[in-house]
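Recall from the previous chapter that SMILES is a line notation for molecules. Here it describes adenosine-5'-triphosphate.
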Amino acid sequence: MNLDLTWRLIKGGGRRGLLGTWLTLGAVAVSTALLLFAVAANFAFDARAERGAWRNPVPAASGPAESDAVAIEASRYDYVRDQAIPVVDLAALKQGVPAPPGMPRFPRPGEVWLSPALAELARQLPADQLAKRYPDPEGVLGDEALVHPDELVAVVGHEPDALEMTAPRSDDRIIAKPPVKVSSLAGTPSEDAEAYRALALIASVLMVVPLLVFGGAAARLTVARRDQRLAALRLVGATPGQVVAMTVAEAMIVALAGALAGAAVFALAVPLLAGIEMQGGPWFAGDLFPSPLALAGVLVAVPLLVGLSAVAGLRRVVVSPLGVAKRETPPALRFVRVLALFVVLAVFPLLTRGTGVGIVAVALALAFLCINLVGPWVVGLIGRITARAARGPARLLAGRRLVDDPRSAWRTVSGVALTGFVAGFLGLLSPGVFAGEAAPPQLRVTAPSGQVTQVAEEARERLAAAGVTATVQPSKQAVVAALGSSADAATLDRARTALTGLVPGRTPTTEADDQRSGSEILTDVRVGTIVVLSVSFLVAIASAGITAASSILDRRQTYGLLRLAGTPLEVLDRARRAETLIPLTVMGGGAILVGAFCAVPFMMGQVSTIGLITLGACVVAGFAGVIGAGALSRPLLRSVTADPAPRPD
Amino acid sequence: MNDVLVGRALVKRFGQTVALGGVDITVRAGEAVAIMGPSGSGKSTLLHCLAGIMKPDAGEVHLLGQRIDAMGERKRSALRRTRFGFVFQFGQLLPELPAEENVALPLMLGGVPRPQAVRQAREWFAPLGLHTMESRRPGELSGGQAQRVAIARALVTKPAVVFADEPTGALDQQTGQDTMRLLVEATKHNDASLIVVTHDPNVAAWCDRTVEVRDGRLVSTGVRA
Ligand SMILES: Nc1ncnc2c1ncn2[C@@H]1O[C@H](COP(=O)(O)OP(=O)(O)OP(=O)(O)O)[C@@H](O)[C@H]1O
Ligand SMILES: [Mg+2]
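With both inputs in hand, we obtain:
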């Protein structure tokens, strides 16, 4: 019975009621899609970390358990052009060792298995540049062995007593993993993978907070539409319980529809999202789908949250059957909020680059929350100043409105302002490109002690045989082959191929190779920043649009009557614009400064141009988006006020 | 020449509905006219046509000898702002503005500097029995007090005509009477004419005369002694 009434409420809401319903549905769909994205990002990095784990061996416990060891595993990085190739060296210690992930069986000594992308590249490049390093590949690695579809991976089988499996290697994790006995090939996610997971978590928190705010605003939108008619229902004797049940049911039906639409949008966007390169490559589409449980969770949680917001928004109507919201001077927000922000900010200069990630994350989250707390207070303050200083009617209206409801004004701009915080923080941190001097390439490989001259001699011979001109010189513990200024990428790869296996278990690398992992992380941080900022902006602009539309709908009667009494539409419009732009300027600017301030302890060297450009683009995009969203609601204002006899519907 | 507002042969249709079927009406300077009639008879439509809110389909409206129904929306809007005042049933005050700024708003829209506008607005409060209510916001006023603020707002620009559509519709009997008395007295005091749409004969009794609308036509024009 209630559902039936609810359904009629949705349908019978009239054109404007229906508009509110559509706006809510759209807003919920957008937030659900983005929420799924934020959730999926974590699953995606988890999936990558899990699949890459087998290459990061866990040593079998020493002592008697050591006899349980089934294999020896080691890894290192090889390079081709500017891409890294993780090379996994494996040797079985027993018969019937289980197959590693993505392989039908354990590789026999001398066998080479390549990932599909590496096999393909080996076919494309001349053999003396890549293929000769991994001769006669035995097979192709399956997806379960790969972090991402384009990854270049080689697995090489050895005898357990081969030099590759016994000689010492560098244990710097960005260069190699020394051979260890393992009792299983499960491994554990690498430190890098864990770092990515942590960053993904921080990124999704940065995205989810504004999303929740946005969803709440959307829910209030439905309720605002219903206020009047629900009050009428109360007058004819509906019990508060019935009124609440009906409205909440209505909000939740709409939210569920929106959530389903959002899930569909997300599913359609997955192929696009899968193209975003991270850790050197795009994604398996499967990685980006959250688990069915998480999906179900989101689809249940979104309507529930919307329902809760609806209940909160309804309290007023239920309390007073007259439904005439008493608008009183709102209690002033307390200065304590500002103090809280200062306290949190005071912590930041104490942090250093050495501080644990956890503490930094907590401090950041606190700063974020405090900005959100301070927001309404500052907006109220700005409102008082604006109202006091106003000479014309538009400014006066804007200022008074900010004072009247700083929270809702803050909701309009909070998305963009909080994004400003993120942009300020990341903008300052955004690393510049590594200053790679264009020096002629040099391949360097560490030689076993006492064999430096001998290794240098062999390198000289191999390079000569391959037709590569190079000056080979021993240098302390290493052998250095300088390729001369005319060497191009192809020559470099010929030299690499010629020197393959020169020192078992070690790869000759250039300086650029050694910095590759570092610069890859920096690139990824930059890509991640852009993704997070794009999402935040999408949310921010959508919520600015939604709040603009809903504030017009809320005030349509007053706007309409003002218009009848001859108030020019431009004045109302200018007031509305000032109402968002003034707080946006102050809060957005303030948030960028606070974000930048928080970043100072972690800065490396000077501010990078890229960071500043990102920041500038954010500021422009933010303003343009919010102004655009406001402008879009102008026709709505016009149509609402064009009604010659405005009355509550 | 003391005819302030003249409507001639006003016709307004909404699709099939004939809301006004040729109405002639004249309002003289300082006169208070009540428009009565059953629901749906066309009272509000008549008011809207006279006030330049709606364009009639046929007929003319003259304000002090000047034809206003043919003007463009922009001009009519300016006219409403400067020459007319409006009091509606409720909801016309901006909830976030203190009462005095609600009253000052029309002056500011007309370009009066803010301090002067607020000073002029304040002068209205005591005579309307709103002393000490200057800085209260509409939500902190009773319905009757809010209507009195609306009356001040309608009169502050010294309009030629004040239009009121069921100004006491949301008030109880006694408060309605009081508000109506204040509305009539204040408009008279300011040499403005008044056109009030109402259902309540007691409210109409405050006016100089009552015209009755039925099915879009005037049926009687009673002048009270
Ligand atoms: N915007 C409109 N669109 C269509 N029909 C309208 C519109 N406005 C009024 N009408 C119709 O015109 C007729 C006159 O309406 P009007 O609002 O003038 O009546 P009223 O006398 O003011 O009634 P009430 O006392 O109930 O306010 C009615 O039949 C109404 O349905
Ligand atoms: Mg009417």
